[in-house]
Structure formats: C-alpha cells, structure tokens
C-alpha cells in the first residue's frame, strides 16, 4: 500500500506576495510622511508605500515644512491632505510662517533670546508707555522726525557733531552753564531788534 502524501494534509497556506508597506497611521486618517518637494504653498509628501501625495499646510501648523522634514498629516480624502505638524525638522533653523496677517493677543508676552533681529518694510508701535534699558544704542537712518509735547534729556556728557546747518528755533532760549560758556567762530553775529545787553563784573573787548 503506497504511503499517503502528507503535503496534501498541511494546514499552512501557500506563500502570498508581500504587499507594500501601508503608510504609518495613528487613527486611520492621521499619517506620517516626508516632505519630498515644495511648490509655493503646496508640498509633495512621500509615504511608506512609495506613493506621493500633494498636501497643504493647515492653519494651525505655524512651522513651515522644509525638504526632508518628517511631518504629520491628515487625509480626509485620497486626493486631499493637510500637514498638521512638523515632527522632525532636518534644518537647524525653524521658520514660523502664516499665509495671511498674524495677530497675537495675550495679557503679557515675554521673549528671551541671545540675539534678535527684526526686518520690516514698515514698523508701527502704539503704546501708552515705552521703557527701554540698554548699555549701548546705535541708530542709523536717512531722516529722523520727532514730534512731542515735552522733550527731556539727561546725560553726564553730551557731544554732537553736525556737518551742515544746525538751526534752532524757539519762542525763548535759555542757556545756562555753571562753569564756562565758550563760543568760537570765524564770524560771530549777535542781532537784537530792540536791545543787546552784556552784564558782568569785567568785560573785555578786543
């Protein structure tokens, strides 16, 4: 009697071809991908199954995705995706960006950094009180206009150098010096419509 063929009695299923890896997902719709390309406000994401998907940045995602960044995205439909977070940026610098006007409302804002730089075409500051403290300040510009009701300055030493015309106009000018008052010029003119008065214990002319 021939021996039975045991292979026919095996319970193992035949080997099936390996399917492509499914995209990493958290809840069925939220997935992880890598930024492969960028076109203005749209990004191309590469997912684990080898496919690519066009995505836009969600309004809540303030970090701008860069090439090679690992991002978290949600795909409500197979053809539409939104990047909701940047998980692992490749660049050392992180860029915060929005597509429209950004408004910040908070009772108080504190920013601490080693170095800060602000670049803007126009800058407007509206405040009841402005207080600044610094060791050194430098202002370079083409023109400086200042309008105020009261202007007060206090300094231990003051040095001013004007290459061209230095004109001062006021209703009344009162200059006082505890020590010496020195006026030096090639030509000095003092004009008084009604009165010119010099008063001193000694007066030297010439």
Secondary structure: elements and pairs:
Layout: E1 30-39, E2 42-46, E3 52-57, E4 70-77, E5 80-88
Parallel strand pairs: 3-5
Antiparallel strand pairs: 1-2, 1-4, 2-3, 4-5
What spatial order of strands do you see in the largest sheet?
1-2-3-5-4
CATH superfamily (homologous) name of the domain at 21-88:
Nucleic acid-binding proteins
**Would you tell me the structural class of the helices and strands?**
mainly beta
**Beta fraction of the residues?**
15-25%
Q: Helical region count? A: 0
Runs in which pLDDT lies below 50 for 5 or more consecutive residues are: 6-11
- How many strands in all? 5
Q: Radius of gyration over alpha carbons? A: 38 Å
Average residue-wise pLDDT: 84
Per the CATH scheme, the topology name of the domain at 21-88 is: OB fold (Dihydrolipoamide Acetyltransferase, E2P)
Distance between the termini: 150 Å
CATH architecture of the domain at 21-88: Beta Barrel
* CATH top level label of the domain at 21-88: Mainly Beta
Shape: rod-shaped
Give a structural overview.
By secondary structure, this protein is mainly β. The chain is 0% helix and 18% strand. It has no helices and 5 strands. It has a domain at 21-88: OB fold (Dihydrolipoamide Acetyltransferase, E2P), CATH 2.40.50.140. The radius of gyration is 38 Å and the shape is rod-shaped. The chain has a 5-stranded mixed β-barrel. A hairpin with a 2-residue loop joins strand 4 (70-77) and strand 5.
């Amino acid at each position: 009697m021939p021996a039975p063929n045991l292979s026919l009695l095996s319970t193992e299923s035949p080997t099936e071809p390996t399917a492509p890896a499914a995209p990493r997902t958290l809840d069925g719709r939220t997935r992880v991908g890598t930024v492969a390309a960028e076109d203005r406000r749209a990004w191309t994401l590469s997912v684990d199954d080898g496919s690519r998907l066009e995505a836009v940045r969600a309004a809540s995602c303030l970090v701008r995705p860069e090439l090679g960044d690992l991002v978290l995205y949600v795909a409500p439909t197979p053809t539409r995706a939104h990047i909701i977070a940047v998980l692992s940026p490749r660049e050392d610098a992180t860029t915060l960006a929005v597509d429209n006007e950004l408004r910040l409302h908070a009772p108080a804002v504190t920013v601490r950094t080693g170095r800060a730089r602000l670049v803007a075409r126009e800058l407007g500051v509206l405040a009841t009180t402005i207080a600044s403290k610094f060791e050194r300040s430098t202002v370079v510009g083409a023109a400086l206009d200042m309008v105020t009701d009261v202007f007060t300055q206090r300094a231990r030493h003051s040095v001013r150098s004007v290459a061209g015309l230095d004109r001062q106009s006021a209703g009344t000018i009162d200059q006082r010096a505890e020590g010496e008052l020195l006026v030096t010029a090639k030509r000095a003119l003092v004009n008084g419509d009604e009165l010119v008065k010099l008063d001193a214990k000694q007066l030297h002319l010439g």
